[in-house]
Amino acid sequence: RKPILDALSLQPEYLRNAASDSGAVVDYEHWQMPLGRRFRALKLWFVLRRFGTEGLRNHVQRGVDLANCFAGLVDAHPAFEISCPVSLSLVCFRLKDRSEDDQVAFLNAVKATGKCFIIHTKLGGKIAMRFACGGVEQTESDVRRAFNVIASCL
Fold first, then answer.
1. Number of H helices, E strands in the chain
2. Whole-structure pTM over 0.70, yes or no?
3. 1.10.443.10, 3.50.50.60, 3.90.1150.10, 1.20.950.20: which CATH number matches 53-152?
4. pLDDT < 50: residue spans in the chain
């Protein structure tokens, strides 16, 4: 089963994790309708049915506003730095002047709290953490609470 799944998958860094890489869990990510090609239209249709065009516009803008709120908190904290320009509702950040091992240990400490889940990616060959805003019910207080959880893991 693994050789077939490996041949059919395009696994970006931000979707990689130790449990899936080791085969300890069944990762159903590759057993679904693909993220691209023809099924994008179907997914877009469902989103438009849920929100409508004006609702979708407002939802995207709210996600951008929440991401800018989180980015402001990261910028104001001396231990963090923004890794790349904020894009829509995604903020990539990392610990300032720390090794890659420290970045991974910090990421695992945040996950271990069970209160906030962030994933990693590689930007310019360096690990960065990804904080995505845009949940349907997400609020600014949720973003601030998540940042406090992240900062408490230092």
1. 5, 4
2. yes
3. 3.90.1150.10
4. none
